[in-house]
Amino acid sequence: MSTLLTKNLADSEQSPPPLEEMPITKHLIILRKHLFKIVGLILVLFFCLLPFANQSYQMMSEPLRSQLPMTSSMIATDVTATFMAPFKLNFFVALMIAMPYIIYQLWSFVKPALYEKEKTLALPMLIGSIGLFYAGIAFAYLVALPSILHFFISVSPETVAPMTDINSYLAFCLKLFLVFGLTFEIPIVTLVLIMIGLVTTQQLVEKRRFIIIGCFFIAMFVTPPDALSMIMLAIPMWMLFELGLFLGKLLENRRKSAV
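^ thats the sequence. predicted structure below, dont judge the formating
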């Protein structure tokens, strides 16, 4: 009996305390471990991709270079720009490749605090958010960016030769990628708001016209100052909202049938 009691006491000392009983310092230590893993992977990817930094920049600049006149080319207005622009892009590429691992580490940190039902719902939504973010960047690079560049180049005066600075082009592209990547998270955000009971699908349907106007209003401020850019962002925002609304209706119907 005493042996069994000693064994149970030893096991209890080895097992971690419940999450709600852990001090804040213990949470910070665990979070630091996850952050070290994230930073470590990003650095490894960054240095592995560094020899291909110039090729990555050439790939990103292809939509612009393919539409420039034969007499035009990209330029560098700063001495360090030829090095810093591919360097910055290389970090962004490493960050995007590491994104699933980053989400996984954050999920591992949050997971112990969730109930079993929340875990089953949260994991598919995390995977979906990653996929939608990549889809937004792909849409920006393959569809939005060539169309926007074609518009700006086509309306330039004949006496002006368009020559874009490589740093300015990089900043423009990264902003566009992030805007579309975050925009494509609208279905997940809509679904989360419905899941936590903050809004219902009926309320969203009633306010649909205001939401559509809001999509165009937001697109007007976060895109370049032309109608084409605004439309190419606002319409996907609207369609993605409708997708989130459709998924929310399916969720509400499942809740009703489960009652």
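The chain has eleven helices and no strands.
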